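Possible regression after last week's pipeline update?

I re-ran a chain I had predicted before the update to compare outputs. Posting the input and the new output here so someone can diff against the archived version. Not blocking, just want to make sure nothing changed silently.
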Amino acid sequence: MAIFPADGQQQGITSQNSKDTASKLRGKRVQKLDAAIIRGLTSAVQELDSHAEVAD
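New output (post-update):
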């Protein structure tokens, strides 16, 4: 049988750990998204550059 502290302190710690984990995961997803956006913009700029050279 689980024993829960009357003041709810343990729950607060668990909740904070969950928030920290969620924050880290969100941070990793944002980094991946940022990298994908940068790759997309880089390829778009290269594509525009190649068309600009042909137009010159």
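Follow-up from reviewer: compared with the archived run. The chain is about 85% helix and 0% strand. Marking as no regression found.
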